[in-house]
Design brief:
Elements lengths: L7 H16 L33 H4 L8 E3 L1 H16 L5 H5 L3 E3 L16 E7 L4 E7 L3 E5 L3 E7 L2 E6 L3 E4 L5 E4 L6 E7 L1 H6 L5 E2 L6 E2 L4 E2 L7 H6 L24 E2 L1 H10 L11 E5 L13 E7 L8 E3 L3 E7 L2 E5 L2 E5 L4 E4 L5 E4 L6 E7 L1 H6 L5 E4 L5 E5 L1
Antiparallel strand pairs: 1-21, 2-3, 3-10, 4-9, 4-11, 5-8, 5-10, 6-7, 6-9, 8-14, 12-13, 15-16, 16-23, 17-24, 18-21, 18-23, 19-20, 19-22, 24-25
Bound molecules: fe (ii) ion.
Length: 399
């Protein structure tokens, strides 16, 4: 498409009309430039460089492109301690005026929006001993990945989940849930949500008027199941209980299992370590809805991957976004012209369309937890993936 209009007098005349229409408050825009998508054509673009650029002018005004970004735990975690200190000495608890004690990760390419990718939000939260986040439900799907050794508790749909480091706790859309720390030391976890997507769709709401029985300080729901409920029901692969509904809460297509234990995840990865694995990903696990095999949320897929010492995956790119938390080890993720050297508890995002590969440069295992919006892209018919062979040939992995 031409960079400049073929007839600039015509364009000037059109812009004059645009100014007139704006003065008249008509809320229309006469088109004076070509449409310019922010991405390059998928199949034509096999170079490692970043794909596409934002348009100029009126077309570009509403375009934004997430940047690849790496948040180093060493740099950001002191702010958690400072939040915790302020909360301990507060005249008014931050939970009272801000709902949570946390910082949100802000992607530098998204104009200050509170999101790490087009569909994904991530916050890192601290709960001091005794803190409670009152019971509520909402439309966004959410998880927390426990980073401290003691992970406090989350009660979801009447099931209390007592957590430890490496656990993944789900609060699917439409489930009543509350969190707290009844231990003796602060609890830290990463919250990941599809909040930006629900906001974009103007379908984000929250309800704090819990209709059931409460307990203790009356801010938390009273558990109605004994601990380990979902593990008892679904904890053996390939066997499903026949006497319960696999739908929990008022959401649709979400997992009835709320708690994946870090120790189980690590043991499962370890049991697979002698397998060849995926040349683009290493040894991988997906957390699945046991009743359907689908992703735990309709929008987001969660997984864990083991990179053995010396492992170097092949280059891969997808139309979906990938957000990572480093649970264990040290390594690098290479992008076109950039490299993230990550270590334990670091977080990083690889936005869609970017080529990337992972390398474990250390002498120990590296474990990454992944959150991807691949299920959403699949549902709207837009999921594609490509990989590069050692000879640098590009193969279609998903078309
Ligand atoms: Fe919530």
């Amino acid at each position: 498409m031409p960079a400049e209009p073929l007839n600039s007098a015509a364009r000037a005349a059109m812009e004059k009309l645009n100014a007139e229409a704006e003065r008249a408050g008509l809320h229309i825009w006469l088109r004076t430039q070509a449409n310019a998508p922010a991405q390059r054509p998928w199949f034509h673009d096999s170079a490692l460089g970043a794909g596409g650029a934002l348009a100029q002018g009126r077309v570009g005004a509403n375009q934004m492109k997430a940047a690849a970004h790496h948040w180093r735990w060493q740099e950001i975690s002191p702010y958690l301690e400072r939040i915790g200190d302020i909360a301990r000495n507060a005249d008014v608890s931050p939970i009272e005026f801000a709902d949570r004690q946390q910082f949100l990760l802000v992607n530098p390419g998204l104009g200050g929006r509170l999101q790490v990718a087009s569909t994904i939000r991530c916050a890192v939260s601290i709960y001091n001993p005794g803190d409670v986040a009152p019971v509520h439900m909402h439309t966004p799907n959410a998880t927390r990945t426990i980073l401290s050794e003691n992970g406090g508790y989350t009660t979801i749909d009447g099931e209390r989940c007592v957590a430890s480091r490496g656990d993944l706790i789900l609060t699917p859309n439409g489930t009543w849930h509350d969190h707290g720390n009844d231990g003796a030391t602060p609890v830290v976890w990463a919250d990941i949500l599809d909040f930006p997507l629900l906001e974009f769709l103007d379908c984000s709401w929250i309800d704090e008027d819990f209709p059931g029985e409460r307990e203790g300080n009356a801010r938390a729901q009273k558990p109605v199941h004994t601990n380990g409920h979902s593990e008892r029901l679904y904890g053996r692969g390939g066997m499903l209980p026949g006497f319960v509904s696999h739908r929990r809460g008022i959401g649709h297509d979400t997992s009835p299992v709320f708690h994946y234990r870090g120790s189980d995840i690590r043991a499962a990865l370890d049991a697979l370590r002698a397998e060849a694995g995926d040349p683009y990903e290493g040894i991988t696990l997906r957390f699945a809805n046991p009743a359907t095999g689908a992703s735990v949320f309709p929008t987001l897929d969660y997984g864990a991957q083991l990179l053995r010492p010396g492992a170097a995956t092949r280059w891969k790119r997808e139309t979906a976004n990938a957000f990572y938390i480093v649970l264990e080890g040290e390594g690098s993720t290479e992008l076109a012209g950039r490299r993230f050297d990550w270590r334990t508890n670091d977080l990083f995002v690889i936005p869609n369309f970017l080529w990337r590969r992972h390398i474990n440069r250390g002498g120990k295992d590296a474990v990454l937890y992944l959150c991807s919006d691949r299920p959403l892209f699949e549902k709207i018919g837009q999921y594609r993936a490509q990989g590069r062979s050692p000879e640098n040939d590009v193969a279609e992995l998903a078309v």
